Predict the structure.
Amino acid sequence: MRVATFNINGIGARLPALLQWLNETQPDVACLQELKAPHEKFPEAAINDAGYGAIWHGQKSWNGVAILARGATPVELGRALPGDPEDVQSRYIEAMVGKLMVVCLYLPNGNPAPGPKFDYKLKWFDRLIARGAELVASKHPVIIAGDYNVMPTELDVYKPERWLDDALFRPETRAAFARLVEQGWTDALRAMHPDEKIYTFWDYFRNAFGRDAGLRIDHLLLNPVLAPHLRGADVDRVVRGREKPSDHAPTWVELDDSF
């Protein structure tokens, strides 16, 4: 079973690229972020024609998350991260796909830091950690997939000395991610590639992709019920190198389906 996460950076502009990738790789579950489309503009018909059912939480201009399932429709469990009823940003959705609980998130960027946007990021992280404490103990297999907007270690960023003051790499951000993982989650990509510089994002500027000046900010976390079923994890780098790409590449895990 393959579960992937892909910050699409505008589903309207990237729909052909998304459909090409879905056709080529046939993930069983695909979590999408940064739809940049209002709810009614999600291309449900095209996604269905590609063989996928979908649930989504759209938002005009920014944000937006979706969960796609091949040959099935995800059963929605919730579409807001608990802890702040006044937060209207579309960044979180939960669903069941068969026996697997899938969480798709788009964690706030937080720049400039310090400042209100960074404060919002850290508060959002606190809410995620609270929800993570519930999910990590679930009797169901759970995966939390998405764009976390954090490079956990120096191994996850090209030239880390240049990022020390950035909201994606500040000590507070990395400490928050560590607190989440230390609940008992397995960082799947790092578990399969413990010592490798492996990136999921490359900026559009300064030939970042050509120079492999990347960041690892897209993560798939597995709870203790699911972690023993991890068989592989990688990044579909080729997608980032195509015409008019997202600045992220799809990132995925392979799981045996005996859970």
